[in-house]
Specification:
Structural class of chain A: mainly alpha
Number of strands of chain B: 18
Number of domains of chain B: 3
Shape of chain A: globular
CATH superfamily of the largest domain in chain B: Alkaline Phosphatase, subunit A
Radius of gyration of chain B: 24 Å
Strand content of chain B: 15-25%
Strand order of the largest sheet of chain A: 1-2
Largest sheet of chain B: 9 strands, mixed
CATH class of the largest domain in chain B: Alpha Beta
Number of strands of chain A: 6
Largest sheet of chain A: 2 strands, antiparallel
CATH topology of the largest domain in chain B: Alkaline Phosphatase, subunit A
Radius of gyration of chain A: 30 Å
Shape of chain B: globular
Number of helices of chain A: 34
Oligomer: heterodimer
Largest interface: A-B, 104 and 92 residues
Helix content of chain B: 25-40%
């Protein structure tokens, strides 16, 4: 319970009636006045000495309650009476005490503050707990669970020891037993192989795989099953995609004026991720490469350079550099650290101990990095005639850009719109040529250090035209501690990466094991997977989370070993049905006394349809393919073109991760548009037709056998007698009515039937 | 749910524990719990069906919204904000400096259009909107709108999403999220634009970090065939009867599947979704088929694409769609940098009669009282003439540049004060000076009319409680009836 204390104290704070802190009901104009003219002054001129961190003279000026409380010497403000208010006196430089000490405020500002006090010092009602900020960075570091060092806890004692297959089970069982609950029975073998195959591959098992597993009575049958699945390249395509959600992967830039919209080489990042998962690249290496591959000794194989796409393939915000950097900070900090640092762009984080200075320390790292004009090649292409022609045209287009730039350099320098546009149009042609030419050799979307690193300034209220104090490039205080050192090498990106994968970093391993757990179980141990801060949810099993994180690091940051640990546990192998009493007591399954039933996500659904129809093209990698237009691609969904600007309705309908920002977890909504797609889209109808054309279906002589085979393919089990009867009756009815109407059916009775099997809940859910 | 502690995370967590839902419900359920939106929907189904009807914070004046988006930026001094002083300075520089807009502008450019007083209120409207003007006593004209920058992209984003650069949910998404939809057989939020997208494209109706179900469903109203209007709305190989037979079999299979498992709201919800989809095929076809309207109604709206899409919009509102946005056309049609007299006349002619018809039609159906009609662009235009620049309007000195300093929008129905003019621009219409209304204020007011406190309609994402009005916005009480 140690770790929960600060959390609850926080809640208690927030339960205090808001009125205690807030001004009497304030009118919006007064609030606007405050927000516009007063708060910015308090934040930029006063709070560094009278705020959360320091309280000179015992005075704080960051909430109304604190303001009214005054300093050690008493009240500083008498609402409504500026002449009796010490605050007004000191800013006027009227007496001995003159504030702010560094220099008198402009007259206009003094007038504003005076007016504000006269108005009664209105301050908007803040439901947010001002109290949370009273915890200093050091206190939060000391008390919040997520900032505690990762330790490997002792295994708890349990009663039902025979249920414990792995240490995971001991932690889960101990939790259940404390509540007087028991785990669900182990799932049957058919359920298990379907579950774990869809989990690791995003595809259902074949009937033969199901049969072999059901027959295999050797004690290590399940373990071998897992090893087989982890060794297949289908695994990386499935789990790589989970990472692409975190990396807000897309193949386009978002809204642009004249530039080429597509990223011609985004795919090299996607392929890098898939390969990293398949090759079980240790997670610390994976992170290092994604943040700083350009600064690592790589040897001959330059493919890891593509890892930097993690930083570079975000939305381009019409090339607003501050927004681009903000996106990079966000994907790094939420994605890898579970911290919402983006909140500190305009002001100190309201809930977490992350200051605006911290934000700009990271800003400096990315502001000191840039994308080179020519992206590096990551493979040596074979010199074919086609390639030569491609290179020739590319060189020609590049030369045109240079020629134009040279010819009109004065006008361009002056910002003449016409010539600037002219230059951009030519640059777009270079990129367009790369994007349109499948033969274009793969390049990595790298980031490199600028020749001279930039010392960042805080932008007051996030406004780049309003620079405040200078800050060093360095890591967050709440993670690195008070004794943190500024980064010294170039931009500091590599140092930032090393600070993240430092074994002592309390967040990195916890965040990652929670993400992995989440995809296996449908819910994380921490249910706010990208927010481990004070307002996130604390873990349901803090010790289990720590044990997994510590073991993960001990195992050389191997994700495949982590999968094995989890999948081999009895916890994972539970049935999704359980004692009704347990379901009632724990409807949200926080105690893990059963498996969560999960619905196939967009990729697993589409891939499974193709797979069952016998049509899945297992070609790996390469340029993205269009999925939504006919003739339909049969490639895996992970290779589909993702247009972040106009994401096709199909993707949104099926809750695909928004590629605008790092996505912690997908929604699972149920809307009729999903059903419409399954009922009516030519894609699904096409798969139903092919399902019947499979040799092992078409080849069945008897109708009963055909139905049985279809059940085995779609659901991994034989059809029961009444199900066969249902099917036969349906087929007969369709045929009868067709005969009665003397029509030939565009979709045969069997095809109609096949489609229904693919629409069913049994196909869409995993027990 | 008026209890103040309902806003706190503790309640959210408790709620989640009870709801028995995974992450799917986390955002929704937590919002509904924290925003007091639990009143209408019950049980766990509401979190699975994101569009189930929900109640707002307080009794709303408006239940649905239609936003007539004059994209490109209609000129206020040529439509709803007469400026006779421009005549005095015609062809001469104004006695004030021209405010900085996207491009350089020159001398005063008086409106080539005639203004006239209409209705009991006697509000002046130009000949461009002579039909609409006949409804002026139901219209609340805001002449003191202002935005932040004179460019289309950020201004469109500000008008639609309350934020110029960063990715935020659109107003329609927020409203559908807050209220759900009255008709589960149709999408809750529909964006119509004939011939393609406006600039910024689908971002104008994006759901951003809200679930995809709240994204506006785009309809290209250039088409008249329902198959082309809504994706997958019909099965081209099966009749409805055949499909019904398929769905009957599906239900049997699903029921069999469910009987062998413990009750699970997800399974049930998915079963229901097929029935909804089946009905949607009929309802949607019906909603988009204006030929089902009597002849006199079609004639009232007039000919052309604008008329058809505005009439479709009315049919959708009638069927319970929450938010319909009607865009004038692809790109930025109202962006008259040159030939404004010709262009604005053409554009207004395309939609004026239909807009008037919409107001009359809603009124005669008793729907105007609780339907909020919004008219306007992303900004207005300068009262000064745009100077020609190569590559843009070379050789032409007869258009106006963008103007975010001051412009006009109007509201009607849904609890606003009709026959009322709010605020004013300066003598020449360059800048809002009196009772200024920022876009954030407009949003706050719209949400208020729909029953929301704009500061409490929030969604927690990336560690912050986001809202449509960010940290701004005030309800403009003067606009309320």
């Amino acid at each position: 319970m140690r770790t929960t204390t600060p959390f609850f104290s926080l809640v208690v704070y927030s339960l205090l009636p808001a009125a205690l802190h807030a001004a009497p009901p304030t009118d919006p104009q007064a609030i606007e006045f405050f927000e516009k003219h007063v708060r910015p002054v308090l934040v930029s001129k006063c709070q560094s000495c009278h705020g959360a961190k320091r309280q000179q003279g015992g005075l704080r000026l960051d909430s109304r309650a604190a303001l009214l409380k005054g300093s050690d010497n008493g009240a500083v403000v008498v609402p409504g009476q500026p002449d009796k208010s010490l605050l007004v006196k000191v800013i006027r430089y009227d007496g001995d005490v003159q504030m702010p000490p560094k220099g008198k405020l402009p007259d206009e500002t003094i007038a504003h503050l005076t007016e504000w006090v006269k108005m009664g010092a209105p301050w908007p009602e803040e439901l947010v707990q001002a109290e949370a900020l009273t915890l200093s960075v050091a206190e939060v570091r000391r008390t919040h669970w997520a900032f505690q060092p990762v330790r490997k806890p002792e295994l708890p004692a349990v009663k039902k020891t025979d249920w414990v297959k792995t240490p995971i089970d001991a932690f889960v069982l101990a939790g259940l037993e404390r509540k007087g609950l028991a785990p669900a029975p182990t799932a049957d073998r058919r359920t298990l192989i379907r579950r774990v195959t869809l989990d690791l591959h995003g595809l259902p098992p074949t009937p033969e795989e199901v049969a072999a597993f059901e027959m295999d009575r050797s004690p290590d049958a399940y373990e071998r099953l897992i090893d087989r699945l982890l060794a297949s390249p289908r695994y990386g395509e499935r789990w790589g995609r989970h990472w692409l959600d975190v990396a807000r992967y897309a193949d386009s830039k978002g809204y642009v004026f004249q530039e080429e919209r597509r990223y011609p080489f985004a795919y090299t990042y996607r392929d890098y991720v898939i390969r990293a998962f398949n090759e079980d690249l240790p997670y610390d290496q994976f992170v290092l490469q994604q943040l700083a591959a350009d600064q690592l000794p790589l040897g001959d194989d330059k493919r890891p350079l593509a890892a930097l796409g993690f930083l570079t393939l975000g939305r381009r915000f019409l090339n607003n550099i501050h927004d681009i950097i903000d996106d990079r900070i966000d994907v790094t900090m939420r994605g890898l650290q579970g911290l919402t640092v983006g909140c500190a762009r305009c002001h100190d984080h309201k809930f977490d101990p992350i200051s605006q200075k911290d934000y700009y320390s990271l800003y400096g790292v990315f502001a000191s990095s840039e994308e080179p004009k020519d992206l590096p090649l990551i493979a040596k292409p074979e010199q074919t005639a086609e390639l030569v022609a491609f290179e020739k045209e590319l060189a020609k287009r590049k030369a045109e850009v240079e020629k134009y730039r040279e010819q009109h350099k004065d006008e361009i320098a002056k910002g003449n719109r016409k010539f600037r546009d002219g230059l951009r149009a030519l640059e777009a042609k270079v990129e367009e040529w790369q994007a349109n030419s499948p033969i274009a050799p793969p390049r990595a979307m790298v980031l490199i250090d600028k020749p001279m690193p930039q010392t960042p300034h805080v932008f007051l209220r996030g406004n780049p035209n309003n620079p405040g104090p200078e800050v060093p490039r360095q890591f967050l205080e709440v993670v690195a501690g008070e004794k943190r050192q500024p980064f010294r090498q170039g931009s500091g990106r590599l140092e930032l990466a090393r600070a993240i994968v430092d074994r002592k970093n309390p967040l990195t391993a916890r965040v990652l094991v929670n993400r992995v757990w989440l995809h296996h179980f449908g819910a994380g141990l921490v249910r706010t997977p990208s927010d481990f801060g004070l307002r996130g949810d604390p873990p349901t099993h803090p010790e289990l989370l720590d044990w997994l994180a510590a073991t993960f690091m001990d195992n050389g940051w191997s994700i495949k070993k982590l999968h094995r640990l989890i999948l081999l546990s009895n916890t994972y192998q539970q049935a999704s049905s359980c004692d009704p009493r347990l379901r009632e007591m724990d409807p949200d399954n926080r105690f893990l006394g059963r498996m969560n039933r999960q619905r196939l996500d967009f990729e697993a659904m589409r891939d499974s349809l193709l797979y069952v129809a016998g049509r899945l093209d297992t070609t790996m990698g390469g340029r993205a393919v269009e999925l939504t237009t006919q003739p339909f691609s049969t490639r895996r969904t992970v290779y589909g073109f993702i247009d972040r600007q106009n994401l096709p309705g199909l993707f949104r309908t099926f809750d695909f991760a928004s590629p605008d920002a790092t996505s912690p977890q997908r929604y699972t909504t149920t809307v009729p548009q999903q059903a419409l797609f399954l009922m009516n889209s030519p894609f699904v109808v096409e798969q139903a037709r092919y399902f019947l054309r499979r040799a092992d279906v078409a080849g069945q002589a008897k109708e009963e056998e055909k139905i049985n085979r279809m059940y085995k393919i779609a659901y991994g089990r034989a059809a029961e007698a009444d199900e066969i009867a249902l099917g036969l009756r349906f087929l007969a009815e369709v045929k009868k009515s067709a005969e009665a109407n003397k029509t030939t059916l565009p979709l045969s009775a069997w095809e109609q039937y096949a489609q229904v099997l693919l629409l069913s809940n049994e196909f869409a859910f995993v027990d | 749910m008026k209890n103040p502690i309902a806003c706190l995370p503790l309640t959210r967590r408790d709620f989640l524990c009870r709801s028995g839902m995974g992450f799917a419900s986390l955002g929704l359920a937590s919002l509904m719990a924290s925003q007091g939106l639990l009143s209408a929907a019950t049980g766990t189904d509401r979190s699975i069906s994101p569009l189930a009807p929900k109640g707002p914070h307080f009794t709303p004046k408006a239940k649905r919204v239609i936003h007539l988006f004059m994209n490109g930026g209609p000129s206020h001094v040529d439509t709803f904000d007469p400026k006779p002083s421009l005549q005095k300075y015609a062809g001469k520089l104004l006695p004030r400096t021209n405010l900085r807009t996207e491009r350089k502008t020159g001398a005063a450019f008086p409106s080539p259009f005639q203004f006239q007083r209409y209705g009991k209120s006697g509000i002046e409207v130009s000949e461009l909107f002579a039909h609409t003007a006949r409804c002026i006593d139901d219209i609340c004209v805001i002449r003191s709108m202002y935005a932040d920058v004179p460019n289309h992209e950020p201004s469109l984003m500000l008008m639609n999403c309350g934020e110029a650069r960063q990715i935020r949910p659109s107003m329609g998404s927020w409203i559908t999220y807050g209220l759900g939809s009255e008709n589960q057989n149709l999408p809750g939020f529909i964006a119509m634009c004939p011939g393609g997208y406006p600039i910024q494209e689908t971002q104008n109706w994006q759901s951003a970090f809200l679930p995809g179900a709240y994204q506006g469903t785009y309809i290209d109203t250039r088409h008249t065939d329902v198959d082309k209007l809504i994706e997958n709305i019909r099965n081209t190989s099966l009749s409805l009867a055949e499909q019904r037979r398929q769905l009957d079999l599906l239900r049997q299979l699903n029921e069999r599947h469910q009987e062998r498992r413990q009750h699970d709201a997800q399974l049930e919800a998915r079963i229901q979704s097929f029935e909804l989809a089946y009905r949607m095929q009929m309802d949607a076809s019906d909603a988009f088929d204006v030929s089902r309207e009597p002849k006199y109604i079609r004639e009232m709206y007039g000919p052309g694409t604008q008329a058809r899409q505005i009439l479709i919009a009315r049919r959708l509102l009638e069927k319970g769609v929450r938010f319909v946005q009607v865009w004038h056309g692809a790109g930025q049609p109202w962006d008259s940098h040159d030939d404004i007299e010709i262009q604005h006349r053409r554009l207004a002619k395309e939609c004026d009669q239909a807009i008037a018809a919409l107001l009359l039609d809603l009124k005669q159906r008793g729907m105007l009282d609780d339907t909020l009609v919004i008219w306007g662009g992303e900004f207005g235009r300068t009262p000064t003439v745009e100077l020609p620049s190569p590559g843009n309007n070379a050789g032409k000195v007869n258009g106006r540049d963008h103007n975010h300093w001051g412009f006009t929008m109007w509201l009607a129905g849904g609890g606003v004060k009709g026959g009322y003019v709010h605020g004013a621009t300066d003598e020449f219409g360059f800048q809002a000076v009196e009772d200024k209304v920022h876009v954030h204020d407009l949003h706050a007011t719209i949400l208020y009319l729909l029953g929301f406190d704009h500061e409490r309609l929030t969604y927690r994402y990336a560690g912050r409680d986001f809202r449509l009005t960010d940290v701004y916005g005030r309800v403009v009480k003067e606009l309320l009836a």
